[in-house]
């Protein structure tokens, strides 16, 4: 033997060359369950998305976009204020693909009866490539239902927002082949309390037009073409459409104060914006701004759930792939009993998140179904709280499956881990979501009725779920210190809803494992503590990626 010949490295190869969409059994189960006769068409559309998402090319752009962060240019070389942000070419590549796959506002103009379901599946799959660029994609999708508060504004903007062409740069909207949207709600003195907005909106002599002056604490993707902004008008907090470029082709009076130095999501430019008599058009009635923009918030919360489910799927895929390609103590890690339990537990968490996210997304395609809309109302708050809150815990365990390799930047796991808390914060932190659940239960009794009806469809199929559902109703019957118990109630309701969806449409072994652990209490509180007697090997097999031939 040549003494210079290297021994086998016992290192797992990079996870590239697999189909992120069609290779995800939980996602395929969800598409089949909620897409019905349209499932084949959805899968056909997902196939190229999943193939590119699992490629070495996409993985490289993931890293490059985050290693080369956006740069703010406040002025040009002549000292003229321009307030532009430069992005690395990998950001533009990612945006070109995401917009090109129809993940922005296309479902709102599509004739397909499952357009939103298809978009949700594509979002969950493509979002696993890189999470930062999904922020402007989400906001562009979410802005359309809010714009519909004004027919003229909706007609003016929706076609551009629904385009599959990514057209970067500040130009008059009518000269661009595609548009992107954002929002400006949060202010430094108020945070989630939008009633304390101090940005002022002064009416002009033209009906419906205003000049805005104030400061917004968090505005992602400041190079987007338009923003929905909350401001104080004479009639109270109102919602406004603020374009980056005015109708006459001049730049609007928006200054980018700085870009935020964030824990994760570093490819995306989150900024502070300053308005100085910025031209705006009112959307909806004066004093009804929060109610108007809440339509956008609901859609962005949906994407928070989908995005977190995608992060979970990415994490467990990396863990299962590594475990199948690395040996220790005489066997591959994936064949070690302790690791089988860990991987199965991670898979259960991921599949539950995927199924419930897709269940809620399917309700968007049924706008006239009272049950579906009431379930979506309560379900978004519940699962935004629960799925997003579970994600960092889950990703940390998946990272540990790779050992020291998972702690090294090249693996991508640290990048994924830094991304994992974001969706729990964006569009309302845990307390905001839990209290929103209580608000829905008290003000919109149809929300609780929808949850009870949905859970009732599997009554008698699993004793753990039945018992937890009864516990929830007992908790709700006692109003003493209910806000103190808000998180407990929200978590229980969210887990019961996940269990319900798994029993209805998921893999039976996964459903049994979920109910026995998350609802039955036979769980050690950390991943890898699923109880004895479950079909763990089969669950792991469902989640282990397979390379495309």
From TrEMBL:
Name of a matching Pfam family: Acyl-CoA_dh_1
Keyword Kinase: no
GO molecular function per UniProt: acyl-CoA dehydrogenase activity
Superkingdom to which the source organism belongs: Bacteria
Acyl-CoA dehydrogenase/oxidase C-terminal domain span: 287-441
InterPro entries: Acyl-CoA_dehydrogenase-like, Acyl-CoA_Oxase/DH_mid-dom, AcylCo_DH-like_C, AcylCo_DH/oxidase_C, AcylCoA_DH/oxidase_NM_dom_sf, AidB_N
Ranges of residues in domain Acyl-CoA oxidase/dehydrogenase middle: 183-277
Cofactor(s) listed: FAD
Adaptive response protein AidB N-terminal domain ranges (all copies): 10-167
Keywords: FAD, Flavoprotein, Oxidoreductase
Family affiliation: Belongs to the acyl-CoA dehydrogenase family.
Protein name: DNA alkylation response protein
Species whose genome carries this gene: Aeromicrobium yanjiei
């Amino acid at each position: 033997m040549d003494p210079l010949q290297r021994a086998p490295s016992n290192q797992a190869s990079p996870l590239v060359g697999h189909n992120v969409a069609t290779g995800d059994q939980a996602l395929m189960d969800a598409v089949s369950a909620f897409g019905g006769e349209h499932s084949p068409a959805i899968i056909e559309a997902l196939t190229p998305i999943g193939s590119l998402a699992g490629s070495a090319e996409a993985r490289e752009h993931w890293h490059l976009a985050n290693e080369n962060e956006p740069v703010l240019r406040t002025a040009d070389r002549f000292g003229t204020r321009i307030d532009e942000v430069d992005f690395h070419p990998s950001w533009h590549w990612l945006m070109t693909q995401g917009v090109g796959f129809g993940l922005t506002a296309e479902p709102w103009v599509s004739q397909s009866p499952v357009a939103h379901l298809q978009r949700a599946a594509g979002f969950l799959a493509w979002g696993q490539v890189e999470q930062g660029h999904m922020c402007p994609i989400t906001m562009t999708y979410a802005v359309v239902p809010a714009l519909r508060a004004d027919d003229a504004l909706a007609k003016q903007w929706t076609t551009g927002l629904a385009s599959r062409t990514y057209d970067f740069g500040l130009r008059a909207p009518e000269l661009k082949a595609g548009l992107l949207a954002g929002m400006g709600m949060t202010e430094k003195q108020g945070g989630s309390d939008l009633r304390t907005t101090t940005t002022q909106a002064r009416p002009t002599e033209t009906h419906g037009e205003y000049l805005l002056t104030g400061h917004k604490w968090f505005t992602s993707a400041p190079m987007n073409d338009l923003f929905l902004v909350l401001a104080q008008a004479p009639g109270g907090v109102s919602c406004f459409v603020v374009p980056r470029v005015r109708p006459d082709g001049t730049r609007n009076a928006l200054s980018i104060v700085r870009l935020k130095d964030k824990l994760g999501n570093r490819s995306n430019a989150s900024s502070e914006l300053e308005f100085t008599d910025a031209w705006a058009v009112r959307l909806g009635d004066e004093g009804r701004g929060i109610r108007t923009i809440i339509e956008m918030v609901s859609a962005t919360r949906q994407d928070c759930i989908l995005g977190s489910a995608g992060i979970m799927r990415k994490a467990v895929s990396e863990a299962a792939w590594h475990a199948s390609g690395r040996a220790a103590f005489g066997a591959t890690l994936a064949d070690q009993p302790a690791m089988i339990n860990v991987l199965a537990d991670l898979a259960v968490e991921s599949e539950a998140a995927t199924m419930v996210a897709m269940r809620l997304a399917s309700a968007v395609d049924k706008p006239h179904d009272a049950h579906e809309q009431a379930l979506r109302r309560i379900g978004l708050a519940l699962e935004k709280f629960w799925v997003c809150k579970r994600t960092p815990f889950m990703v940390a365990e998946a990272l540990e499956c790779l050992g020291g390799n998972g702690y090294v930047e090249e693996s991508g796991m640290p990048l994924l881990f830094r991304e994992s808390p974001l969706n729990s914060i964006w569009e309302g932190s845990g307390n905001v979501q839990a209290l929103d659940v209580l608000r829905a239960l008290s003000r919109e009794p149809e929300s609780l009725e929808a949850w009870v009806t949905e859970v009732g469809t599997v009554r008698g199929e699993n004793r753990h779920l039945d018992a937890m559902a009864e516990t929830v109703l007992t908790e709700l019957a006692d109003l003493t210190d209910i806000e103190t118990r808000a998180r407990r109630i929200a978590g229980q309701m969210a887990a019961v809803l996940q269990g319900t969806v798994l029993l209805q449409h998921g893999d039976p072994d996964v459903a049994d494992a979920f109910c026995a652990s998350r609802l039955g209490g036979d769980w050690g509180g950390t991943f890898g503590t699923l109880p004895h007697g479950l079909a763990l090997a089969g669950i792991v097999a469902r989640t282990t990626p397979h390379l495309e031939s």
